[in-house]
Structure prediction request, 934 residues.
Amino acid sequence: MTTLSQASSVSMRAEQTRLERRYAHLGLLLIAPTVLIFSAVIVYPLISAIYMSLFSIFTPTLEGKWVGVDNYVQLLSASEFWWSLLNNLIWTVGTLTLQIVFGIGMALVLHQNIWFRSLARSLILFPYFISTVVAVLVWKWLFNDLYGILNHLMMSAGLIDMPIDYLGDMPNAMISVILVGAWKYFPFVVIAVLARLQSIPDQLYEAAKIDGAGAVARFFDVTLPQLREVLVVIVMLRAIWDFKEFDLIFLLTGGGPIISTQTLPLMVYKEAFALNQLGMASAYAVVMMAIMLFFMIVYIRKTREKSA
Amino acid sequence: MMRRTVFNICAWIVILIVAFPLFWMVVTSLKPQSELFSRPPTFLPATLTLEHYAKLLWETNFLSYFRNSIILSVMTTVVVVGVATLGAFSLVRFKFRGRETLAFLVLFTYLLPSVVLILPLYLMLVRLGLSNTIFSLVIAYTTFALPYALWLLRSFMAGIPEDIESAALVDGASRMEAFRDVILPQLLPGIISTALFTFILSWNEYLYALVLVNSDDTRPLTTGVMNMLISSFNIEWSLLMAASVMMSVPLIIAFAFLQSYLTRGFGAGGVKG
Amino acid sequence: MENLNLSIRQGEFVSLLGPSGCGKTTTLRMLAGLEFPTSGEILIGGRVVNDLPPGERDIAMVFQSYALYPHMTVERNIAYPLKKRGASKSEIVEKVSRVAEMLQLTPLLARKPRELSGGQQQRVALGRALVRDPKVFLLDEPLSNLDAKLRGYMRAELIELHAKLGRTMVYVTHDQLEAMTMSDRIAIMYGGVLQQFAPPQEVYREPANRFVAGFIGTPSMNLVDGTLRQDGGRWIFQADGLEIFADMLDDSAVSGPACLGLRPEEITLGSGPLAGVVQLVEQTGHENIVVVRIGQSLRLTGRASGNQVWRMGETIPLSVNAEAAHYFADGPTGRRLNAPRRATSFRNLQSVL
Prediction:
């Protein structure tokens, strides 16, 4: 006799079976290490960062004094903060734009059946995976004012008469940083766009061809609308990552000349370990996070929508 | 046909320009010091030499940095991938209170800037007396590697049909046995992919290493090689380029043999959500 | 899903039938222990199994997706449930080869699932369930991914298998043909609610409500919305262009909106007092399915023999077998209002079987 009965129970409370509870316990057990590590190295530090920003802390001794919101008041009235924010925006917008435009272009090229396609893809992908340290060393050597190949090539092409100081002058420094950033990170856009391109059904292009659309019209009417969704996600993600970029700028220019390429992450580092103001640095970090929060929420919403 | 050829040539010119810095890095590392400063510069070395590599290996701390980087990256990868695999299994296949909140937290921390966490972490690790140890870096690297690995593995895990696990349960396996017998073999490509990304991320990390470690015994490659640049009075570019090449060796290996795993990780990562 | 109460006899073949999203798969998964009822009890062989994990419920399941383990060979797939039960090596070898023999899988034992055709994968999934000889087999639309011809073949195989093993089988399907041909009894579900649980003939002849009436049978029963009224002690059903005496209504009938149900075979085309315009003729070979319009908007579907040719637009005479009519209360699952007709004999027949 096999019976399945589900008579409505008297109590409204949904009672879990013992098996269900056992599964839930096992689930919690499996996630426990993650939760522990998260709490210890992410949640706790995040909260203490906010707490620290209310103190004045001298880095070498780590001795602190409660100052309340003084750090924030001071920060918002400092012109260096606003300059750093402006630099941060210029850097983010500049390098992001180049990454997107160049990334889409290269993805379209690699989507075609070009010679040695997989080799081409590897070559394009490589800058993204190498260490920023390596990228910076190589570019510093290329940028070298006396023996750098870049100056040599531009001079022999007659573009310039004198060697250029790529990293020590303005606006050269900002342009160089933006270009190197674009070079290093555009492969991310290439791969992401390429993956999406490969999933656009061929029928769409054939239909457009039958309707008499040329190559350009096909790009704007078929390709771009299909890419729109993935592009929004890519832009958000890269905007967040570019905004918080530290290594590349710090290693290339150190924020210089003076503070012309100093972005907020560099400012945080400088306050904490050059000016030894750990509390003030925390305040900078918190403000920076607050600015990023906007993008983060938009991105999280977007990915939620998709998974829902 | 003509148009195809022109297109191919133009495309390859652009690709070669993008790849040029890497080409130049290799070429520079193989040139004798004197040839670096010849005008006009030689595009292929007139004389090939491995002297810089020899010097790098025997006369600098490079090998010690390399060893530190290997230990550090392997430890981080093992810890993070191990924890994240179990965590992802739980997040995808179990129901418990707070699961959604946790998934949200993972995504949030995946986007969190390191500079926010580094100050309190520095404070914490100094107070625990762990600063200047490789272990402190493993702890610090977990902050970005764990959310990343969880996020990747979560979407790999979601791609495994639930029916397979159900079938194993009906066939008499417990949840953990089903995980071991059925899910783990299916997840393996995803785990390899995630491990690869975690390793590369740790291998390339700079900021935490800069702040948390300042002795040559514990320095990883990133800060170690950068130190060679800063501390030397006159910069030996070929030596630095040789160091850069050597630093990229694990990547080149990954590229040569495991490229499909790299692209797979890309798909599963942030872009596809 | 709410208030489901099903009792299945040992050795019975029961189908859970319904449109997608009706809760039939959920029911099956609850039986398997893969999902959990919010309340109530599940008994297998007189034992409450709510707290038992799937593996201890003495059941085997065949999944719609087959759910073969992709990294294991056919042999290891079939052996897995035995291995999990701690069977000895020799026992595993013996049972696997017996099942493989029975399902003609012997030459495929060393292959991986992805190297098999859909039909072969299906047989492996079946083999994995059979190898264990459980009390109950749960089958979740096992044939829905096969092509029509193979489906017909496997249907016959399953019937034969059930006869041979004499095991209880619970079979989820959305295909009424499968349910009607294979089952001892059919549980028809809709919107998470059990609508009727009865042998195939009874479900067909005495649909418990309007949903069952419309769901079972191809072409489906004509359902005509209209009103019931009482006139001089007799019930009369009236709809656009149609008015018939509704005898045999039970005591629960009330005046007001109701629904008339007529099987296509209860409509005689070509003779009779009514007249209709031919709207559509579907030729299936041995018979024609004809849709006629009566009055302004009433459409009825009837059957006619295959050599009877009518053209569209032609007006033909027809009659309706009012004695065979069903009446249902208003609403998508309105209950049947007429007393069972000819039904007793069928019920007896079924229990004798």
Q: What stands out?
A: Chain C touches chain B at residues 29, 32-34, 53-56, 59-61, 63-65, 67-71, 80-81, 84-85, 128, 132, 138 (CB under 8 Å). Chain C has two domains: 13-205, 210-352. Confidence is low (pLDDT under 50) at residues 342-353 of chain C.
